[in-house]
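Appendix C reproduces, verbatim, an entry submitted by the partner laboratory led by Prof. M.T., so that reviewers can inspect both the input and the predicted structure.
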Amino acid sequence: MAQYTLDGKEKKIGVLGIYASIKNNSDVVMYGSAMSGIDPAGENVTPIQPGESVVIPSNNDRAVFLLGTGDAAVLSGNKEFNFFKPAPKGGGGSGDGITQQQLNDTLKTYATNTSVDTKLEEYASKDEIPASLPADGGNADTVGGKSAEELIQSNPNLLLNPDFKVNQRGKSEYTGIAYTVDRWRTFDAKSKIQVVNSGIKITTLTAANENENTNPLFQIFDRPVDTYNGKQFTLSLKAINITGPWRACIRFGKSFPSGDYVTATYRTISSEINHWTFTVPDQAVSMRIGIVQYGSDGSAIGDTITIEWIKLELGAVATPFVPPNGAEELLKCQKYCLTLTADICRNYTMNTNSLWFLISTATRLRLSPSASDISKLKVKVYGTGTIYDDFTYQIGVKSYPPAIIVEAKKANHGINTNVGGVLTVPTGMLILSADL
């Protein structure tokens, strides 16, 4: 166990395992995260109350970050156990800690070689060694009934909505230059995107000329990549039902989130699982990952490909794809896109010329959003249902607690302050986009 004293500045703490158990031994709240630049009100930041403890996953550099003042204790391991909350003896604990047996098993990793050798002598004898090895030399593709793939630790996927299940815009088919299923967008109108059970299906509407590509599906990496210059990433994807030539594209730009490109790398997609390793070049500031038809390969109207999932991870090894938790992925996507329907909320204050509405959100939007069709937004009188369609609207973002602030403006609107108004989308859906 390591002890640290925080002085109000963010502190980077190296850990030995995948998870860090952290106990706050001070009398004020601390904050922990796997990412640097801790904002107490930000995403992926865990508050640690005085005297309490939490478990935080470490980042790819095997480190966590703490912000606060006072003393903190840190223990690390490769399982998501809270070492500071062991369950009651007897195996009957129902808390979030570990059982005594689990604690004992973990502590064995710190045993001396002498004690380990002694235990091995107790449980093994020479007559238990088989006379011959199996035909495969003992290198079977399973251990304890688990496949090699199951035994490999999966790295975090750096792409959002990697299996295309989040679809807040609600369409089953997308065409034109626009965002489609959450975080994935098209950069030309030469293809259509269809939402299918296995993922998304891309169909060519206009064949690519020899000196140009079709650009039907891309995700812009959601932060600048200049800190990754010279580092390796691995891109994996699963594709089925392929007709015609298709390639994966990794495009690096000179500015964030897009701009003139530094270089672009293209890799041919084959059926089933593909993976490629690449290095982030110098001068790269932005990166986008996508599927294209490369002009010199040739293409034809009606060419199709179905993509089940895409994974981007740090390092030169492709680890297994793990489907994300749907609720958690929706929450991540709502940083970039939010949909509003029906009656939303009542005003919280007003004057002669304006009403202000506060829409609480599960996560803070990345920036003040644009509206897909602001004319869908209306104010109606609370109780009577009278709808006004001649207000103008200004939309902003509140950081903590996260919310959207809408000011509805109309000179001498006439709504009684004792009654107030309701912000509503009477028909259809209003999409608020803070996408890159």
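The longest strand covers residues 337-350. Additional entries are available on request from the coordinating office.
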